[in-house]
Amino acid sequence: MRMVKGITLIFVFLFLGEFIAEVTPLPIPGNIIGMILLFISLVFNFIKLEEIAPAGDLLLEHLILYFIPVSIGIISYKELLRDEFVSFSVIVVGGFLILYFLISKMIDLLVCNLEKKGS
Q1: 100, 2, 98: which is closest to 49 by C-alpha?
Q2: What is the pLDDT of residue 88?
């Protein structure tokens, strides 16, 4: 029964996020809005983590299944990817380097803040 309640809560936030995305001019996808709302609910203890943990664990356990449609899409566009390999590679490597730099700076800031609080 806990699994049904957890999945129901996750889907309620998903649909709530989709609804907000439809009725507002926000340029954010509905699933992201739903995830933010779920996160806020967990932080402020409107929902207990124990209520959605079994459903979340199940979804994470089968996460690889969500990548099958993407893989099939990549295979079906292999000619396009072959033609645009250089630009695609530059985008992927550049995006990785930018993300790597930003994450390292965020971690550096967090460590500095923790050291200041500990002093």
Answers
A1: 2
A2: 87
